[in-house]
Inverse folding.
């Protein structure tokens, strides 16, 4: 993890982990210059002065990093199988709302949950938990059915609860609401109250693979949501058909769980989105990747290599008014995005080889390097920096630091995936 100042300079960086696999996947600003981070680890791992040992193949972790880069607490959740945190949001009071996946029987503080699917399934059920400012888990809930389910994106609702998105397969329970996927996977969006009760849940999708990847609160109780879909899919009263194998969707969900608009972006190949941020005026800033020629509203972009990263702005009415790309002759993708409080965005991801970020050219030191770039409200890249070494590294989450800079979560090796579904190479 590192802190990038408004000028693009890195003023501190820290690491966590042990002798086995550990990855940070989600990051959120804590409101006081620091960050809340979630992910997974295996075996024994160090988080500052705290040492944790996984109970199974993977455990989820949540840690707090202060404004100076010190880890002051870290906790774990999980059982004897595969468990991990994917998304995290600040709860407005120093704590965190976290979503992810678990399999079999898993412990979340004093709460024990058992997945409804087969114990050997790596992503059997989704969970949502609340972690207090002192690092205590005070409630945890589960969703899902007997097949594959996972929570990927989470946002604070402004009132102590959470808006969550992810995917499910087959018949799945969301509190008192039961949903049945129309295809292999469907996306879901649900609202969890501050008490941990699920008061509504909706689905989107068609007869193929669909999933929700990222979500942001719209400041009025609803959310802007992005994910992927394949074939013909329904988003409330809107029907979209992918131009290629996968397209990106962005939709707006009201505080009551109604979808009032949905749009798509993509081309004739594999295109996907990973991150969304609310723009402060009803719209959204979105990042991801595309291959070949792809349409973003009236803007057409052609990738320079296998994949290029994109950033686009979607207005409050659901119109894409600008889209830009960053990339070179190899594989480059945007993963995390945060609003900069001035209409622009801070973006992280990974790149390989020589890559152009506006007028800035960077060359990776290893296979892949992480990048952080700033995009203005007009869609101009005004600076970009890199981080990495001789092996594969990538930026997978970013949060605005409240002062023009960013807190970015790095991990390696860089991995190509479609937010819960297998992602083939170009």
């Amino acid at each position: 993890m590192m802190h990038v100042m408004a000028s693009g300079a890195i003023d501190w960086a820290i690491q966590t982990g042990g002798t086995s696999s550990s990855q940070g996947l989600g990051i959120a600003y804590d409101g006081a210059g620091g960050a809340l981070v979630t992910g997974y680890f295996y075996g024994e791992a160090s988080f500052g002065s705290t040492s944790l040992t996984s109970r199974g193949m993977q455990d989820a972790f949540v840690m707090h990093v202060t404004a100076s880069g010190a880890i002051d607490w870290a906790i774990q959740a999980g059982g004897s199988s595969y468990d991990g945190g994917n998304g995290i949001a600040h709860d407005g009071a120093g704590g965190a709302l976290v979503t992810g996946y678990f399999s079999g029987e898993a412990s979340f503080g004093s709460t024990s949950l058992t997945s409804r699917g087969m114990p050997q399934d790596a992503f059997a059920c989704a969970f949502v938990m609340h972690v207090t400012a002192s690092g205590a888990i005070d409630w945890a809930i589960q969703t899902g059915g007997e097949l594959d389910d996972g929570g990927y994106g989470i946002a604070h609702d402004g009132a102590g609860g959470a808006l969550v998105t992810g995917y499910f397969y087959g018949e799945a329970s969301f509190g008192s609401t039961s949903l049945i996927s129309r295809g292999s996977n469907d996306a879901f969006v649900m609202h969890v109250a501050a008490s941990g009760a699920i008061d509504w849940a909706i689905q989107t999708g068609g007869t193929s693979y669909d999933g929700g990847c990222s979500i942001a609160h719209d400041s009025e109780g609803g959310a802007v949501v992005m994910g992927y879909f394949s074939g013909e899919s329904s988003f409330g009263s809107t029907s979209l058909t992918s131009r290629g194998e996968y397209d990106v969707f962005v939709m707006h969900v009201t505080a009551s769980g109604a979808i009032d608009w949905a749009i798509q972006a993509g081309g004739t190949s594999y295109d996907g989105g990973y991150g969304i941020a609310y723009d402060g005026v009803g719209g959204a800033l979105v990042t991801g990747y595309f291959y070949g020629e792809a349409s973003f509203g009236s803007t057409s972009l052609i990738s320079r290599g296998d994949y290029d990263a994109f950033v686009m702005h979607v207005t409050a009415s659901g119109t894409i008014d600008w889209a830009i790309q960053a990339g070179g002759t190899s594989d480059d993708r945007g993963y995390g995005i945060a609003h900069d409080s001035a209409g622009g965005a801070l973006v992280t991801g990974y790149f390989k080889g020589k890559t152009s970020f506006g007028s800035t050219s960077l060359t990776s030191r290893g296979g892949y390097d992480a990048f952080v770039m700033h995009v203005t409200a007009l869609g101009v890249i005004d600076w970009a920096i890199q981080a990495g070494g001789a092996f594969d590294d990538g930026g997978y989450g970013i949060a605005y630091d409240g002062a023009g800079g960013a807190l970015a979560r790095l991990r390696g090796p860089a991995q190509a995936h479609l937010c819960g579904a297998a992602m083939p190479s170009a």
Observations:
- The chain has one domain: 2-411.
- The mean pLDDT is 92.
- The chain has no helices and 41 strands.
